[in-house]
Design brief:
Two copies of one chain form a homodimer. The first copy, chain A, is mostly helical. Chain A contains nine helices and no strands. At the A-B interface, helix 4, helix 5, helix 6, helix 7 and helix 8 of A face helix 4, helix 5, helix 6, helix 7 and helix 8 of B. Chains A, B: It holds the Pfam family TetR_N.
Chain lengths: 197, 197
DNA sequence: TACATTTGCCTAACAGTGTTAGATTATTTA
DNA sequence: TAAATAATCTAACACTGTTAGGCAAATGTA
């Protein structure tokens, strides 16, 4: 009855194969290009087989993101281990986080729902808000006579904080409370304004 | 030959109807629930008709985001008009930006590609990175003896900046340069660390 | 007015998606 | 060897975006 073991091992293996196939497709074609039939093709089965290992497509994405978080955690850990002072540790950790987002971009996109869309392409309407903000930033900084690159950078700093905060609130919905939002908004915006003046 | 005018006006009207129908579906079911046939149903036509007004689905989303940016710009403008000092103006503008993101959430999602995904649900693996960061933050702040809420808030502040910056880089790809990234990373992370100590 | 042409709109279809039901084949058990 | 079970496939459903072809009404021309 040792064949039971072999069968269980085989099952575990095809389960892994499905995940690996899925991830390789995601890496090649982006997570929008992932389909059950493509996975099936890659593991040399037909699509319905996958449903004996995962209840649906979302479950595969879910497990994939789980693996993503584990990998991220590992890299954070090893970044932390390189330093003793917590101030240095956290800087290294956020840098590792940053690296993770760009070496495993597709993974990061599935994990945090970042999607590239039409807006960035040629949509000229997107320039209006940008121009409005940079005009005011230039006004604030007029004493130090900054170049356009500096203003652009300050705009991106603002945008990062706000957009990031909005993203958390949209993705995590209920989790984040009003008070924290207000605090961060006031702190961050106020802080950046001060650093500009 | 005034009928030419009427026909042109009618064409313009159904074009608008398509956009309005599309947006109402997006508001009701999220932008993933948008389909050509649903739009067709709503304007009481069949799907192929839409292709006489828009070359494809993406073009509709594109025009919709265009309108979104115009609306956003308007609200930024009126927020700016309420104040005289540029410091007050930019704060009001970012607050207006924030409001826009949550009154027109679906629109904001299409405009900036924020998507809610599996990760936020029950995925317990997502907690590992969170715990790693908050542990170090607590270590840095141990002298001021902060409560868990404060630590959570500081974590979100960090995360906002980094995630926002990553999102810009993924969405806008080429636009943003290395130097700006490094500058913002160093400025923002360093700044927040100092504010924590 | 009669015919030709253009326009508006629809049906049907293609290729793709996630997912399920039922049949078929292979393997194991009695 | 026969029955039961497991593994796998085919076919289908209900969708998706998109295109081709045809029908009928409106228009332009003689």
């Amino acid at each position: 009855m040792a064949s039971k073991d072999r069968i269980l091992r085989q099952k575990e293996e095809t389960r892994n194969n499905i995940l690996e196939a899925a991830y390789s497709i995601v890496k090649e074609e982006g997570w929008q290009g992932l389909s059950m039939r493509k996975i099936a093709d890659k593991i040399e089965y037909t699509a319905p087989i996958i449903y004996e290992y995962f209840s649906n497509k979302e479950a595969i994405l879910n497990e994939l993101t789980g693996k993503g978080f584990i990998k991220l955690a590992k890299e954070l850990q090893s970044a932390k281990a390189k330093f003793d002072k917590p101030e240095d540790q956290i800087e290294a950790m956020w840098m590792a986080y940053w690296d993770f987002a760009f070496t495993d971009t597709e993974m990061y996109q599935v994990m945090f729902g970042v999607q590239m869309n039409c807006c960035s392409q040629q949509c000229s309407a997107a320039e209006a808000p940008y121009n409005l903000f940079t005009a005011v930033i230039a006004e604030i900084m007029k004493n130090s006579n900054p170049g356009p690159e500096v203003i652009k950078q300050k705009y991106f700093t603002f945008f990062s904080v706000i957009h990031g905060l909005i993203a958390i609130n949209i993705i995590n919905k209920s989790e984040v409370m009003e008070t924290i939002n207000n605090q961060i908004l006031k702190d961050a915006i106020g802080g950046i304004i001060k650093s500009i003046q």
